[in-house]
Amino acid sequence: KQQQPQQQQQQKRPAQKKKGSKDENSSSSPVPATQEYNPQEDPNSIPSRIALRTVLIVSSIIAVISIRDLFFAGSIISFIPRDDIYLEWTGAFFHSPPPDTVEADEYGLESPLYAGDKLVSQLLGMYLVLGCLLKFASVGAWSKGNRSMEPESPENVDRHGVVSSKMIWKAQAFGDMLLLFMLRMFAPAAKSASLDLRWHLMTVAYEMIILGLYGFH
Question: How many CB atoms lie within 10 A of CB 22?
Fold first, then answer.
């Protein structure tokens, strides 16, 4: 009878050691990560691919026309449809008639009197070029986060790139809204001069919607 309790105690002791070994293994095992790494949230990626494509398509056209109005006022760009009608409708031939043309013979002597109109046109072109440069920078000049961050720690990623891009997108969406309002206001007058502004309105409105969605999201 005395041997039986001793044998039972010996059987309980190894069971207690096994429980302790489980605790040691559980304490030594690494804690699983609470957030898995997502390749789309890579800190070295651009802020938004959709915004990048939209800005490259729409703002590139705006930048080309604005650079022409800023540095080469009155010059006709051949690959832009009905560009001569656009220049005539906006009054660019009054202050900057192309040389050796009918407009030069008609407005050549009076062109110095329209120097103020030329200055305002160049000023507007400069503002549009600066706005396009800001949009280009917001979609491609910096990444979502700090490039020195490691992808193994996504919870510590610095999101300063996304914040900077959203600030610019909000302001540029408001600027596109003003440009859209101006084009819409002069659309009937442009149509009377055989200049259809429907494509201009649609492209500017599309960029405004995309920048507004991603800026205020």
Answer: 10
- Look at the alpha carbons of 124, 126, 127, 133 in this order and tell me if their dihedral is positive or negative: positive
Q: How far apart are CA 159 and CA 149, in angstroms?
A: 11
Helix pair 115-140, 160-192: axis angle to 10 deg = 140
Here the tokens at position 187 are: 């659309």
Q: What is the pLDDT of residues 120-135, one digit of tens each?
A: 999 999 999 999 999 9
Confidence of residue 144 (pLDDT cuts 50, 70, 90): confident
Instruction: Name the DSSP class of 191.
Output: H
SS3 193: coil
Q: For residue 170, give every residue at least 6 positions away whose Cβ sits within 8 Å of its Cβ, in sequence order, or none.
A: 211, 212, 215, 216
How many angstroms separate the CA atoms of 10 and 18, rounded?
13
Which pair of structure tokens corresponds to residue 53?
A: 């494509």
Taking a C-beta distance cutoff of 8 angstroms, is the pair 41, 144 a contact? yes
H-helix or E-strand spanning residue 187: helix 160-192
User: pLDDT (tens digit, 9 = 90+) per residue, 29-42?
Assistant: 444 444 555 555 66
Percent of the chain's residues with pLDDT above 70 = 74
Closest C-alpha among 161, 148, 168 to residue 216: 168
Beta carbons of 87 and 104 less than 8 angstroms apart: no
Place of tokens 């429980």: 19
